[in-house]
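Re: the multi-chain job from yesterday

Posting the exact lines I submitted so nobody has to dig through the queue logs.
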Amino acid sequence: MEEKQGFFKRLVTGLTKTRDYIVSGMDSVFSGFSKIDDEFYEELEEMLIMGDLGVKTTMKIIGDLKKKVKEQHVKEPIECRQLVIDSIKEQMKAGDTAYEYENKTSVVFVIGVNGVGKTTTIGKLAGKFHEQHKRVILAAADTFRAAAGEQLKEWANRAKVEMIGGQEGADPASVVYDAVAAAKARKADILLCDTAGRLHNKKNLMEELRKINRVIEREYPQAYKETLVVLDATTGQNALAQAKEFNEVADITGVILTKMDGTAKGGIAVAIQSELGLPVKYIGVGEAIEDLQKFDADEFVNALFYSGTTEDE
Ligand SMILES: Nc1nc2c(ncn2[C@@H]2O[C@H](COP(=O)(O)OP(=O)(O)O)[C@@H](O)[C@H]2O)c(=O)[nH]1
Ligand SMILES: [Mg+2]
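And the result, structure tokens for all chains:
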């Protein structure tokens, strides 16, 4: 229970900027209007869009709110607060947020453009799984820059797991081949593959992923495959666009949204689930190894609209 509270507290803290921005803005709309009229709806709509919830999702939320206001004969703007919260939760019901891979022999591909936080996130995941006494192997399949392998190696040491790498410029598929051999030899539970995301060349990326997939299919058919796309929440609508593009070239099974601690654009989590139907599986709320959390839509919205204090009592 205590751990659960600490967990929620970290989430609340991580979402401070988004909350200060969207929620305080919304609250000023709820308390600043004396009646529910067109102007009220327009202001609320603007707040939601500025909070990066996306135009489509915002329209659904406003439409839903108008319907409820009518049906339930709501008169006071402040009563709309809870209705909006419920509606956001409703919009976020994306497919089921499964974590099956965690309990299977699995290969996890982590893809995404440069700088979004792939390597960091792999380090955090490795730390989590290692703590759960799972046998983890990292594959440094981002061979584009030598520094990428070194950075992953640091994370491997921090998480106390093994890493398989290759020379700078080596074929990523050959690194994955070696990593699969190691995973089989050590009876690893989870093989986490870091990749170099070069979305500017879709054809190359597609080719590369296909080649890697062929290696897995041939060498490790028994493994459960998970493909997670990492998106930087601070980029707002841009993150949504990247998710769409990656979804066209790979079978994305989930999204990891990083840097939620450093942005007022945390509302993007709502847009991704609502508009793309892709489940957000984890969020990054800081740079340390423990700053990765499983994503729960209800908990996320509760933390976003939390109005208590996170100071230690
Ligand atoms: N504040 C914050 N920074 C993060 C988070 N995730 C990653 N970063 C930082 O983002 C930068 C890029 O991360 P990196 O893992 O190298 O990205 P990659 O190019 O996708 O592998 C690093 O400085 C990380 O410390 C997060 O959740 N919060
Ligand atoms: Mg990297």
